Amino acid sequence: MNADATQIDSAAIVPALPRGVRLRFDESRQQWFLLGPERVFEPDEIALEILKRVDGARSVEAIAQELATAFEADRDEIAGDIMAFLRGLADQRMVDL
């Protein structure tokens, strides 16, 4: 996928957590989890930064811009990484795209 396709996709796609899927912090384990029906995903630090911004209102482009600013990184590269990550979760029905 070229950079232009990533920009078009990320501008139009607004990811959301589907019904029954929740991002939760487990106090006893001091760990974040993405919980879904019969599924548990333990996000690493980068995945967590993305998932905290998946609110059904922000586009992938907006999330990429926020992370690029926060981490002083290339927005286009981050947008591609976010889309790959979210598509993987979407395949598992943990995120709606």
* β-strand number: 3
Please outline the major beta sheet: 3 strands, antiparallel
Helical percentage: 40-55%
Percentage of residues in strands: 5-15%
Terminal residue distance: 17 Å
Short description:
This protein has 97 residues and is α+β, with helices and mostly antiparallel strands.
Notes on the protein architecture:
With 97 residues, the protein is of the alpha+beta class. Helices cover 47% and strands 14% of the residues. The protein contains four helices and three strands. The protein has helices at 3-12, 45-51, 60-71, 75-91; strands at residues 22-26, 31-36, 39-41. The protein has a three-stranded antiparallel sheet, with no helix packed on it. Helix 1 (3-12) packs across helix 3 (60-71), helix 1 crosses helix 4 and helix 3 packs across helix 4. The protein is globular, with a radius of gyration of 13 Å. 22% of the residues are buried. Residues 1-8 have low confidence and may be disordered.
Architecture blueprint of SSEs:
Blueprint: H1 3-12, E1 22-26, E2 31-36, E3 39-41, H2 45-51, H3 60-71, H4 75-91
Antiparallel strand pairs: 1-2, 2-3
